[in-house]
Design brief:
The chain is mostly beta strands. It has 1 helix and 13 strands, in the order αβββββββββββββ.
């Protein structure tokens, strides 16, 4: 699947569906992580910022070896037909997405894949709305190497933040993510 084409198609669909301020749609695709063009895994950091949004890594309580957000290159064996992606590189770590200006935003889609291609992963996204209410979307990945597009429900709008947790590395395997479409 051509992910660039898929993102463009999703952006057009969001515009046609009446997304306000279509010019503000952004796809966080991590192509600026240049180390991942030649390395399988690289560039661990606590935050990643691009296109007006920030992803924040937080290790699980008691994590002995917190790593951070790590770029996953095309040469990673389980990044099948993918582009550069990110992973929260420690068990049960959380990733939180926010707008840099603190403005409300919507999350339309995200691509997910099993980090090690070995067994199914489940991921639950928790959106905190500007009014403090919560919305959730749970996803069960298929346990096969390769990407799966997750389209978020329309309730993922007027958001202050979206948080999701990495797999616990034993019963719920880790995942990587790419192509986060937000407005």
């Amino acid at each position: 699947m051509n992910f660039r084409f898929a993102i463009r198609a999703l952006l057009v669909a969001a515009t046609v569906a009446g997304a306000q301020h279509a010019h503000a749609l952004a796809a966080l695709d991590f192509q600026d992580m240049t180390c991942a063009k030649t390395q399988a895994l690289c560039g661990a950091a606590q935050t990643y910022s691009a296109k007006g949004f920030t992803l924040q890594y937080a290790p699980a309580a008691g994590e002995q070896y917190p790593v951070g957000l790590t770029a996953v290159g095309k040469s990673w064996q389980y990044n099948v037909n993918g582009s550069i992606a990110l992973t929260a590189n420690s068990c049960s770590a959380t990733t939180t997405l926010t707008n840099n200006k603190g403005a409300a935003f919507a999350m339309f889609a995200i691509d997910l894949a099993e980090m090690n291609g070995d067994s199914p992963s489940s991921v639950t996204f928790v959106g905190t709305k500007v009014d403090g209410s919560k919305v959730t979307k749970s996803v069960q990945l298929d346990g096969k190497a390769g990407w799966q597009r997750v389209v978020m429900p329309s309730a993922f709008s007027s958001l202050k933040s979206v948080t999701w947790t990495q797999g616990d590395c034993s019963t719920n395997k880790p995942h990587m993510f790419d192509n986060i479409v937000v407005n």
